[in-house]
Structure formats: C-alpha cells, structure tokens
C-alpha cells in the first residue's frame, strides 16, 4: 500500500520550503546590498593624496576575469563540464556579447558625460535609469505592472533624487561667484547623453534577464559565456588605452583586491537575481545600497548625516511595501 502524504498548500513541508527559500533570498539580497553599499567607501579608502592609485580599467578587467574563473570552477564542480567539450553553436553564444557591449558603452558614457555637466548633476539625473528600466521591463519582457507598482518605482526614483540632492554641496552663491568655484551646470548635449545612458543601462539589464531566462542552460555556463565576452571587450579597451600612466597592476593593495572580490561576487549574485527573479529587484538592491553606502561612509569616513537622510530611507521602505505587498 502506497501512502501519499498531504502536499496541499497548508502542508508543513511546503511551508518550511517556502520559508527556507525566503531566508535564502533575504541573505542573498542582503549580501548584495552590503557589497554594493561598501563599494564607494572602499574606493575612498584606497585613495592616496586624494587620487586613486590604481588603473580603474584594469580593475574592471580583473573583476570580469574573477567572475569568469569562478563560473568555470562552478561549472566543473556541478558536473556540467561536458558542455565545454565541443564548441557551442554561434547562435547560442552570440547573444551574450550584447550585454558586454552595452555595459562597455555605458562605462564610456559615464566618462564622456563629465565634460558636459558637473558630477552632482550626473548623480541626480542618473536616477532616471529606474524609470527607463521599468519601462523597458514592461515593454520588452511583457510584464504588466500594477498602478501601485508604478507608484512604488516612482517613490524609488524619488528616493534616489532626494538622497543625491541631500549630498550636494550647494555652498554659498556669493562665495562661489567670488572664488569661481564649480557650480551646478548641464548642457543640452549633456542632458541628451544622460537620457542615452539611462536607456542603455535599462536595456542592458532587461536584455540580460531575457537571455538568461530564455535559454535552458545551467546558470554557470551562461555566466561563462557572458564573462568571456566581458573579459575580451574590457581587456581590449584597457590595453588599447594609451592615456593611462599607470601599469596594469600598479597601486593594487589589499583594499583593491577586496573591491575586486566583492564586485565579482556581486556580479554572480546579480545573475541569480536576473535568472530567478527580476530586474526590478535589482533596482531595489541598488536603491537600498545607497543608504548602506551613506551609513558606512558615516561610520568609517566621518560623513555627516542630516535629518533629511530619513526621507529617502522612508521612501525606499514605502516603495518596497507598495511593490511587493
């Protein structure tokens, strides 16, 4: 006689699995927020006389290389290495080159935009990528969002703007005129570049999510394809640059290697989110990380937090409630 246990929605085993899954997601997202939030403070701690002592482009290459090696090791340990015995079809691999190209384009846009606006204006306007990602997510992936979810994303974008605005050093206008200090400014071409940057950023996230979910391949193998192109494109950009006066590994310290390890881990965790979650979750991770960034900067760098800091914190919390509840 075969006894079939109760596996209904109220089954204790099912409830236990749901709670374990929630805890796993909570740990994953919490770790991502911590790594994202610690990135800027760690870079600040590496500075020598106000300057970054290492070559940023080489750091990006090392991060991509670390992700590639970890993906390869994971693939071998999971027993899926036979997939590497034969060259994969070009049709299967080619889509993974697009995210690498888009992210490389975005990295160059960030540098280019600085010539047409001040850094503070860029910091505030770059929050528009939340809106562009949400629109592309809805249009390209066919995900219809409820009005409350659109409102939540509006709060999320507002939280980013408020947090960016609270960190602006507006100073004294009269003193700025007499001392000719840098002032907030943006040109029409700069505004156009910001819009392009936000669209490319959203498109890169949405396209990566679509590729990861559309192909029934092990995630470690998909990551391997992604980071092969990432290493190739960023490596080409790094070694073709003649403007840098620093050698490839010059200025690397323990903090720099910690940055590389953290960003490599974050990239791999983000692929899990895009594969099994959504790009919108990525936006919440980034928004929460800016608050962690401020707290870490206060604790380690002596950043002064104003009461206005509670406004973006409240807006992120409200946005999460409206979107997921």
From TrEMBL:
UniProt keyword Transmembrane, yes or no: yes
Localisation per UniProt entry: Golgi apparatus membrane
Keyword field: Membrane, Sugar transport, Transmembrane, Transmembrane helix, Transport
Spans traversing the lipid bilayer: 23-45, 65-84, 96-116, 122-141, 148-166, 186-212, 224-243, 255-274, 281-299, 305-324
UniProt-listed InterPro entries: EmrE-like, Nuc_sug_transpt
Domain of life (superkingdom): Eukaryota
Alphabetical list of SUPFAM superfamilies matching this protein: Multidrug resistance efflux transporter EmrE (SSF103481)
GO molecular function, one term: pyrimidine nucleotide-sugar transmembrane transporter activity
Name this polypeptide is given: Solute carrier family 35 member A4
């Amino acid at each position: 006689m075969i006894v079939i246990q109760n596996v209904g929605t109220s089954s204790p085993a099912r409830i236990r699995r749901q709670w374990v899954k929630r805890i796993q997601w909570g740990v994953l997202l919490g770790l991502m927020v911590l790594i994202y939030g610690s990135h800027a403070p760690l870079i600040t701690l590496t500075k020598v006389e106000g300057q970054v002592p290492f070559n940023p482009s080489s750091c990006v290459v090392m991060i991509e290389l670390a992700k590639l090696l970890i993906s390869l090791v994971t693939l071998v340990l999971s027993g899926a290495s036979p997939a590497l015995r034969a060259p994969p079809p070009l049709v299967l691999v080619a889509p993974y080159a697009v995210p690498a190209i888009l992210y490389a384009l975005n990295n160059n846009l960030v540098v280019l935009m600085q010539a047409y606006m001040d850094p503070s204006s860029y910091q505030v306007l770059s929050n528009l990528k939340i809106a562009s990602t949400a629109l592309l997510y809805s249009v390209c992936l066919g995900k219809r969002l409820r009005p409350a979810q659109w409102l939540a994303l509006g709060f999320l974008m507002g939280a980013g703007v408020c947090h960016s605005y609270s960190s602006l050093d507006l100073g004294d206008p009269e003193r700025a005129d007499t001392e000719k200090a840098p002032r907030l400014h943006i040109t029409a071409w700069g505004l156009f570049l910001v819009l392009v940057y936000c669209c490319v950023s959203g498109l890169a996230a949405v396209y990566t999510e679509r590729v990861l979910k559309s192909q029934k391949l092990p995630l470690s193998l998909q990551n391997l394809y992604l980071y092969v192109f990432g290493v190739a494109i960023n490596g080409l950009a790094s070694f073709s640059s003649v403007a840098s006066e620093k050698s490839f590994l010059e200025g690397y310290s323990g903090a720099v290697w910690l940055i590389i390890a953290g960003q490599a881990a974050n990239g791999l965790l983000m692929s899990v989110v895009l594969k099994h979650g959504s790009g919108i979750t990525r936006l919440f991770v980034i928004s929460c990380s800016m608050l962690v960034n401020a707290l870490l900067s206060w604790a380690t760098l002596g950043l002064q937090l104003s009461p206005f800091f509670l406004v973006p914190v409240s807006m992120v919390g409200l946005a999460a409630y409206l979107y997921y509840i």
